[in-house]
């Protein structure tokens, strides 16, 4: 029986999903992005070439795949055009293989203005790319969808109406005066639309009619940034967990009955921006993780906060997503540590907590309870055979499997496409 595959993030994003999706999509015909927008930054290294994709599905780097931007995404047409042009300059055809949902919402220039105003006030730690306000307009029934661009009169009316709303917020809430040339926004939107017009289609219809094709679904951000299940309000504006898959694609939950759900996790934990982080390190170990792991955001360039692996959070992600397996990245970053710790519980007022809490105020006060492993002090980068893994590294991986209840099916042993190691041959069709 055919098995489709979902790859998403199990932590606060930045787990290395881009490299994994690029690797596994070699054996898939269609790769689907279903949520988020240009706040994603999926990095892939192919030979001496480095690609950072924000909107396009990572699988588009393989010439045999079709890439889908589904309805759950919010799309900045200017950035999409630039991203397509960059790949096409490098000899990678894109528009012939790209399908964009006619129900996907747009990110408009005034959304970015609002993003900056909101961030100045609330300090959530957004990328300032207009993603949150675009989703806000979507759920406030003020959004502009791809299908609206065909009706020029309606488009102009929507832009004008939206700007009047934003202008009121600027002046009456923030006491600031801002101006936007509505005519210019209108003309530029139509210009960018003309560039991708032939790619726009009914995505859910396409997927239902082509269910016999092999499908890989690519999540952005990570489960702990999910707007409903993450560390709210320090989250992204979409369902970055598997919960976003049906509504983000326009497909029934029954469509995914034959889909494997895998998530990517680092061998330690990082996050960008504000919000609680129980295992965050402020000492030399934290600096070593950041420097060895090159922990700087691909979208923002911001240094990431680093800490030991939080298994309470990871087990929560396993449960929320109904995961079948984990893919572990950056194990080699831990190669030089004499001791490696994992968080197995939180302590609060003398009690142990083993279920990730919803309360932000509680999460900010917990202390991590650690299990300590002796470091393996041997290189794991580039290893190809599981037998070559140091015994202590295998013990570390086995403990993660035991605690979370799901197998670690693959290790990424470096940033390049060919640096990976299968641990469990669960799916012959994704084997390379």
TrEMBL record:
GO terms for cellular component: cytoplasm. Homodimer. One of its GO terms (biological process) is 'de novo' AMP biosynthetic process. The active site is at residues 14, 42, 138. It is an enzyme of class 6 (ligase). Residues 70-97 form a coiled coil. Keywords: Coiled coil, Cytoplasm, GTP-binding, Ligase, Magnesium, Metal-binding, Nucleotide-binding, Purine biosynthesis. Plays an important role in the de novo pathway of purine nucleotide biosynthesis. Catalyzes the first committed step in the biosynthesis of AMP from IMP. One of its GO terms (molecular function) is GTP binding. It catalyses: IMP + L-aspartate + GTP = N(6)-(1,2-dicarboxyethyl)-AMP + GDP + phosphate + 2 H(+). PANTHER family: ADENYLOSUCCINATE SYNTHETASE. The lineage of its organism: Bacteria, Pseudomonadati, Aquificota, Aquificia, Aquificales. IMP binds at residues 14-17, 39-42, 127, 141, 221, 236, 302. The gene is purA. Binds 1 Mg(2+) ion per subunit. Its main location: cytoplasm. SMART domains: Adenylsucc_synt. Mg(2+) binds at residues 14, 41. Pathway: Purine metabolism; AMP biosynthesis via de novo pathway; AMP from IMP: step 1/2. It comes from Hydrogenobacter thermophilus (strain DSM 6534 / IAM 12695 / TK-6). This is Adenylosuccinate synthetase.
């Amino acid at each position: 029986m055919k098995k489709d595959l979902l790859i998403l993030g199990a932590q606060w994003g930045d787990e290395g999903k881009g490299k994994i999706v690029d690797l596994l999509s070699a054996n898939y015909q269609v790769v689907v992005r279903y949520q988020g927008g240009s706040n994603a930054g999926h990095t892939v290294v192919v030979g001496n070439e480095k690609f950072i994709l924000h909107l396009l599905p990572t699988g588009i780097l393989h010439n045999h795949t079709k890439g889908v931007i589904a309805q759950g995404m919010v799309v900045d047409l200017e950035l999409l055009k630039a991203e397509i042009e960059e790949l096409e300059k490098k000899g990678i055809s894109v528009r012939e293989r790209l399908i964009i949902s006619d129900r996907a919402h747009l990110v408009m220039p005034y959304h970015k203005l609002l993003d900056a105003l909101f961030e100045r006030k609330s300090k959530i730690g957004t990328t300032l790319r207009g993603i949150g306000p675009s989703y806000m307009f979507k759920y406030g029934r003020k959004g502009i969808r791809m299908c609206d661009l065909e009706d020029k009169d309606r488009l102009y009316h929507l832009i004008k109406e939206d700007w009047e709303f934003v202008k009121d917020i600027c002046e009456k809430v923030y006491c600031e005066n801002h101006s936007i040339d509505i005519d210019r926004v209108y003309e530029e939107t139509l210009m960018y639309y003309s560039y991708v017009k032939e790619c726009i289609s009914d995505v859910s219809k396409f997927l239902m009619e082509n269910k016999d094709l092999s499908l890989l679904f690519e999540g952005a951000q990570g489960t702990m940034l999910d707007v409903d299940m993450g560390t709210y309000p320090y989250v992204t504006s979409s369902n970055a967990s598997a919960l976003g898959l049906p509504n983000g694609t326009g497909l029934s939950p029954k469509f995914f009955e034959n889909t494997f759900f895998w998530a990517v996790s680092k061998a330690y934990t990082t996050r960008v921006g504000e919000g609680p982080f129980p295992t965050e390190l402020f000492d030399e170990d934290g600096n070593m993780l950041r420097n060895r792991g090159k922990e700087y955001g691909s979208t923002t360039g911001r240094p990431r906060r680093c800490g030991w692996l939080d298994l309470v959070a990871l087990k929560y992600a396993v449960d929320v997503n109904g995961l079948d397996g984990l893919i572990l990245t950056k194990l080699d970053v831990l190669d030089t540590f004499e001791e490696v710790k994992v968080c197995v519980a939180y302590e609060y007022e003398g009690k142990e907590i083993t279920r990730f809490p919803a309360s932000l105020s509680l999460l900010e006060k917990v202390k991590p309870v650690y299990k300590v492993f002796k470091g393996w002090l041997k290189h794991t980068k580039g290893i190809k055979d599981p037998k070559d893994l140091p015994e202590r590294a295998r013990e570390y991986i086995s403990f993660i499997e035991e605690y979370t209840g799901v197998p670690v099916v693959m290790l990424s042993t470096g940033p390049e496409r060919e640096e990976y190691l299968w641990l469990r041959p669960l799916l012959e069709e994704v084997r390379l």
